[in-house]
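Objective 1b: paired records.
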Amino acid sequence: MNSIAPKFQVDLFEIGTRMRLAGLADNFVAAAIHTAMEFDGVYDLVLLWDGEDDAKERDEIIADIQDMVDDCVQAGKSEAVYIRFDDLDSIAKNVRKFKDELLMTVNQHSGITELAKRTGIPQPSLSRFFNTHSMPRRGTLLKIAKALDLDAVRIATEWVRE
C-alpha cells in the first residue's frame, strides 16, 4: 500500500483517536497509524481492532500490531549477531530465565500495567513478551531498562534481536 488514498488516511486518524480514547499510549497509536499507512498487514489489523468488541481479542490484536510495527522497523536492518543452531536450546533456556528474572524486577517496581505507561508499550504486548520464549528485541529491553532505571548494559545481552 504505497500510496494510501486520503479517505483511508482520514479513517486511520479517526481510528487512532479511538485507540487513544481506549487508553493506548500515544507512542503506540502514532507508530501503529504511521505504519498502517505503509503496510497492508498493519492497516488490516488496525481496521480489525476498530471492528472488534471483545476486549480480549482487542488485546491480542494490539499485541499483533506491536509485533508488526517492530518487524516493519526491523525491515532493512541486518542481524548483527549470528546464532549457531547448536546454541538454540541453551539460549532458549537463558531467555526464559532472563525474562522470568526481569518480570520479578518489573513486579517489584509496580507491575506490567505501570511499565506499559512508562514505556509506551501496550500492556498486551508486554504480557506476550514475558509469556513467550522468543528472544527479546534490544529496543524493547532498553525501553524497559529506562522505565525501571536499570543498567542498560545488564539488561541488553548478546543474543537479543536488534
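Objective 1b, second protein:
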Amino acid sequence: MSKNKLVGDLTIRDVTKSVELNVEYNGKMSDPYGNTKAGFEVSGKINRSDFDLKWSATTEAGGIVVSDEVKIICNIQLIKVA
C-alpha cells in the first residue's frame, strides 16, 4: 500500500480553495470478466467556514448541530480502459 497526496482546487458556493487529501493505493486485481481494477482510499478534511458556509444552530442543551470541520472519506475503484 502506498500513500500519496492529492492537491487540487475545491469550489463551494463560488469560493475556491486549495485542498490537500491523503490517497492510499490499495492495489490492483483482475475481476472475473478480465477487467483490471485498482482501488484507492481518499481522505481528508476541510473547514466549511473557509467556504463561507455559515449556517449553524445549537440544541436546547447548548450543543452545536453542525461542526466547522467536514471529514471527506472516499473509497474509489477504477477500471482500466484499453
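The chain has one domain: 2-79. The mean pLDDT is 92.
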